[in-house]
Design brief:
This protein is α+β, with helices and mostly antiparallel strands. The protein contains 22 helices and 19 strands. Helix 2 packs antiparallel against helix 8 and helix 5 packs antiparallel against helix 14.
């Protein structure tokens, strides 16, 4: 306790510079704790989402309905890129089952909507057709997964529900039917955030705990020479770091509370939550208030070990030994694991994510990241010795000799940026794998909309939606159901030009505009009844009257290959638009659109369709709307993690570079007094940072690509080697090096203070 109080007295009485350093340590720690609290709270936000989704899920019975029982029918349709869920309820005499967010079941003609649907009804009055009845109120927060959800309860009668309704017994499941993020994906997401955020965060908190390490080490060595014990010296140093870390933890929790209030109201792309969902839990508070000071305690004790055990060497600035090689062992182990799984991708039987890979791949990625951190001092030391021994340049010699003396400073300066590049590659691999799982492999995405609900004006608006490459019609032939045991064949006709056909299919041969042509897909088995000369009737309406359009299949054909899946893959005849009578609208027809299959493009097109035809029944061929929403959540969380990693990496770099420049003022002053020019000193400072950073970034790029590929190989998708993202990562690495070089230039001051040498 005496040593702890002595540390506090030294903190308060060691001058203004020491107090400024203490405040910087607390401010840096608060930033790190804020990011840590955000990472720890993300699972709670997702759990709150899933908990409310489970609590409102109707439970039903297969028993025959009685007058006492209520009936329920649930419908979920896409509105843009979001799901619009409507729960139709026919209230019985026993209406004790009440969904969360409502005071009672709606009666016939009563509609309760979410706040977002309430706003949409003003913006898009056509949505009223989906909600028969009068709006009686809003659904409370307890009945919604997020503030932007499209959800409604519609009261109706038993006759209107028909035979598809089921007996309502209550509300509430033990699990969410559609979780915000799939449990297996959530495990991967936690692991990714740990790599992207927590590894750099641990480095950053260690950097903050070791500000002005050289000055403090000399001061502790003096206390040790005055008779303080080894453990007492370590406790004196740990007192300052623990108090600064504790103050930073309290400030960081306050910063997170404010950030949660702001972010919950603005939201992230694809993810919204209520402020209470992101509230600080006792576990998060305990981890921040206990874990961060504990980390500072161990870092403080470790940084004071040299001053406590060999104070004379510290005061006389003896040459330190080479860094430990244990970090290299971690790096080699991690690279060995991920490289082994990458190698299986070159064989006919690549490894899967089942079995040992479920643990080994994440372990290999984390070991590689930790090895990068711990290997940088050794790499900096080795590089510095070799370059200094071989170069004839004064600038490089000065820079490398300083890095040789202080190899650990390289880790504090460049590690955050190196880990950022490493984590970016891993995040890219996760997004690629999720995209493969949740969307079709086809390069095109088709959309099918029932023509009966579209006017000519809306058809034109849909064709003009940004991202739509082409539009067409598909119509099914009419079959008489009267008598006869023989089943008549049916065909689907595609009403389109040759140019439109080419946009919908992979390839086509033999198309001629203005002619009715047979469509033949060699990869699809043909119906024997569909042959040249066969006649098929199509029902159409013109001027309010129903007529029949008969088409005879010609012998001329178009050979085409359809995407999988496709809205036009089953078409057997191509009909030019000019063949339809003016003003005619086919029955049993659908309006089809096509565009890019990129997830962002799919969202834009779906949102455009929702704005142009809000009540249209849209079938996004092969796309799972819930999966698309999950991709949006994952992209938002990974993007948030990358932003936090970038903030932490830049903060660690700026704090470390500034602290190192302040620590070396005496050395810079001495070099200036013996004739070194400011330009030379700036080049020295730049070389001290840029060379180890460049080596670390090259290693991070290689390790990151191996880690990403090992994840893709074991993920079971078709993409194993992602070469598309490599140029972007390379450009980002060059940008990091350039920014680091520019950031070191102002750190050599113009004012010379010889008193620094006397003090030293």
């Amino acid at each position: 306790m005496k040593e702890f109080l002595l540390g506090l007295r030294l903190l308060l009485g060691a001058g203004r510079g020491n107090r400024v350093r203490f405040l910087l340590m607390a401010a840096g720690g608060s930033l790190g704790v804020c990011c840590l609290a955000l990472v720890l709270t993300i699972p709670a936000i997702l759990d709150a989402h899933d908990g409310r989704a489970a609590a409102r899920e109707p439970t039903t019975s297969s028993h025959a309905p009685s007058a006492r029982s209520s009936l329920v029918l649930e419908r979920s349709d896409p509105h843009g890129s979001k799901a619009f869920t409507r729960v139709f309820v026919a209230r019985g005499t026993d209406a004790s089952a009440v969904p969360p967010g409502l005071r009672g079941l709606p009666g016939p003609g009563e509609v309760f909507v979410s706040p977002r649907v309430h706003a949409l009804l003003r913006e898009e009055p056509a949505l009223k057709g989906l909600l028969p009845g009068d709006e009686k109120g809003l659904i409370g927060a307890a009945g919604l997964t997020n503030p932007d959800e499209l959800y409604a309860y519609v009261g109706t009668t038993r006759a209107q529900l028909g035979g598809k309704a089921r007996v309502l017994t209550g509300f509430g499941y033990g699990y969410a039917p559609i979780p915000a993020v799939d449990p297996s994906t959530l495990t991967i997401l936690r692991f990714a955030l740990a790599t992207i955020v927590l590894l750099p965060l641990g480095v950053f908190l260690s950097v903050c705990a070791r500000l002005s390490a050289a000055s403090r080490t000399r001061r502790l060595a003096a206390l040790r020479l005055l008779g303080l014990s080894v453990k007492g010296t370590q406790r004196v140093n740990a007192a300052e770091t623990v108090v600064a870390s504790l103050l930073g933890a309290v400030l960081g929790l306050g910063e997170y509370t404010v950030l949660n209030q702001v972010m919950s109201r603005t939201g992230l792309p694809g993810l919204r939550w209520y402020p209470a969902d992101g509230g600080l839990s006792p576990t998060t508070v305990g981890v921040c208030l206990i874990g961060c000071p504990a980390l500072a305690w161990f870092v403080g004790r470790a940084s004071a070990r040299s001053a406590a055990t060999n104070p004379l060497a510290v005061r006389r600035t003896a040459l330190p030994g080479a860094p430990s090689r244990w970090g290299g062992l971690l790096l080699i182990t991690g690279l060995g694991i991920v490289t082994g799984y990458c190698a299986t991708g070159l064989t006919t039987h690549p490894a899967s994510s089942d079995g040992p890979a479920a643990l080994l791949v994440p372990a290999g990625v984390l070991l590689t990241g930790a090895g990068l951190v711990l290997t940088l001092p050794l790499l900096s030391y080795t590089l510095a010795r070799k370059v200094a021994g071989a170069t004839q340049s004064l600038t490089l010699n000065l820079a490398m000799r300083r890095n040789e003396v202080e190899p650990g400073s390289a880790m504090r300066v460049v590690t955050g940026l190196v880990l950022l590049v490493y984590a970016a590659s891993l995040a890219q691999g996760i997004l690629i794998e999720e995209n493969q799982v949740t969307r079709p492999d086809s390069p095109a995405q088709d959309y099918s909309i029932a023509l009966s609900g579209l006017t000519s004006r809306r058809q034109s608006d849909l064709a003009d939606v940004p991202g739509v490459r082409a539009h067409a019609l598909t119509m099914d032939s009419w079959v008489s159901l009267k008598g006869g045991s023989q089943v008549e064949p049916r065909v689907t006709a595609l009403v389109a030009t040759c140019a439109q056909l080419r946009q919908f299919v992979e390839h086509s041969e033999g198309c001629v505009d203005g002619r009715v042509l047979r469509l033949v897909d060699p990869n699809t088995a043909a119906d024997p009844g569909v042959h040249p000369g066969a006649v098929f009737p199509f029902r159409i309406r013109r001027d309010g009257r129903r007529t029949t359009l008969s088409l005879t299949l010609p012998s001329d054909r178009v050979v085409y290959g359809a995407h999988d899946p496709s809205a036009v893959g089953g078409a057997a005849v191509l009909v030019p638009p000019s063949e339809l009578p003016a003003g005619a609208r086919p029955e049993s027809a659908r309006y089809v659109l096509t565009g890019s299959s990129d997830p962002d493009a799919v969202r834009r097109v779906l949102d455009g369709i929702g704005a142009a035809a809000p009540t249209a029944d849209v079938d996004p061929i092969g796309v799972n709307i819930d999966g698309l929403q999950q991709i949006g959540v994952i992209e938002s969380l990974l993007g948030l993690g990358m932003v936090m990693g970038l903030v932490i990496g830049l903060a660690a770099f700026l704090v470390s570079v500034t602290d190192r420049a302040v620590e070396r003022r005496a050395h810079v002053t001495a070099l200036t007094l013996i004739g070194a020019r400011a330009r030379t000193l700036r080049a020295v400072q730049c070389a001290q940072v840029v060379l180890p950073l460049a080596i670390g970034l090259v290693l991070a790029l290689v390790a990151g690509r191996l880690a990403e590929s090992s994840y893709l190989v074991t993920g079971g998708g078709e993409v194993f080697w992602d070469t598309a993202g490599l140029p972007l990562l390379g450009i980002a690495a060059l940008g990091v090096v350039g920014a680091a070089a520019v950031g070191t230039l102002p750190l050599v001051g113009r004012d010379i203070n010889p008193e620094l040498i006397r003090r030293d």
